[in-house]
Amino acid sequence: MLKVNINGVEFKNPVIAASGTFGFGEEYKDFYDVGILGGISSKGLTINPKDGNEGIRVYETSSGMMNSVGLQNPGIDHFIEHELKNMKKLNTNVIANIGGGCMEDYEEAIINLNNTDIDMIELNISCPNVKSGGMAFGIKSEVAYDVVSKIKSITNKPLMVKLSPNAENIVEMAVKCREAGADSLSLINTLKGFAIDINKRKAVFNNTYAGLSGPAIKPIALRMVHEVSKAVDIPVVGLGGISNWQDAIEFMMAGASAIQIGTVNFTNPMAGKEIIEGMENFLIKEGIKDINEIIGIV
Ligand SMILES: Cc1cc2nc3c(=O)[nH]c(=O)nc-3n(C[C@H](O)[C@H](O)[C@H](O)COP(=O)(O)O)c2cc1C
Q1: Which of 181, 210, 215, 250 is the most buried (most CB within 10 A)?
Q2: Pocket residues for ligand 1 (CB within 6 Å)?
Q3: Ligand 1 atom closest to the CA of 186, numbered from 1
Q4: For the whole model, what pTM was predicted?
């Protein structure tokens, strides 16, 4: 009843743990059997290991949080040798979330994943592009087009491209990524925000700005999922501030074929289980036989 299919990959339900908020799955095993999830998107992986950013990395805001983790991760080879093996034992779809500072970084990481049994790639184009002075790949659609078409030509995995809400025009960005060969899209990543420590009279984060996530961004994310899913003919995975099953149903009605849960995992580690159960009960109560019936009905 909750099964969905994205790019030929079957998900037992549409609830996926969002990248960067669920580690590699192990971290939540003490709370519930994470194998009940539709999938887990790994922490953002880069070709080389990264220590992440100096200074404060996470900061609570009203109705959400800000982060500037800086893609701390063990690197793609370590992931393939260690974390992936454990993730595959969790009995859920494994999505490898890939970041990069330049085109070559992305390419090398993607090629290394070709011979693995990951189920899907989620290409994070919100990463700062070193060659263009640090502006993220996901801001200008022509730049995103170049990355996505290159990656599409070298991967043998289904390619989901994760869009940034900071894009100049989210619909144009989605259409361009589709033209470049994206098999599906996920949105949204964090919104660029700012916080000041008034006692120190300086920015809270060493990098000045940081990514805002959580309930505060939900209406924006929902609007973008609605706009994008009407503009493209590929599956859209919705995320941004989903905190409960009602939010999840909203995203599906707006056009999402599946949803991801991020920040809520920090405030309620049981959220994944509760959202799956809540969606199931909603379908029973409403007499809906198949979750696919409600995708994009609004
Ligand atoms: C601490 C933290 C780390 C994150 N790391 C990544 C990452 O490595 N790659 C990525 O694509 N998104 C990353 N994200 C973004 C989330 O996956 C998600 O797109 C965003 O937080 C919006 O969803 P939410 O409001 O449900 O958290 C991170 C978010 C947080 C809060």
Answers
A1: 210
A2: 18-21, 43-44, 58, 67, 69, 71, 97, 124, 162, 189-190, 213-214, 217, 239-242, 261-263
A3: 19
A4: 0.98
Measured between alpha carbons, how far is 91 from 208 in angstroms, rounded to an integer? 40
Report the alpha-carbon distance of residue 126 to residue 31 in Å, rounded. 30
Mean of the per-residue pLDDT values for the chain? 97
Taking residues 197-209, what's their average pLDDT? 97
148 within 8 A of 161, measured Cβ to Cβ? yes
Do the Cβ atoms of 75 and 81 come closer than 8 Å?
Answer: no
* Residues whose CB is less than 8 angstroms from the CB of residue 156 and which lie 6 or more positions away in sequence, other chains included: 114
The string of pLDDT tens digits covering residues 63-94 is 999 999 999 999 999 999 999 999 999 999 99
Nearest to 242 by CA among 294, 159, 186, 173: 186
Angstrom distance (rounded) from CA 90 to CA 112: 22
Q: Where are the beta strands (DSSP E) in 42-119?
A: 58-61, 64-67, 93-98
Residue reference for tokens 């992931």: 79
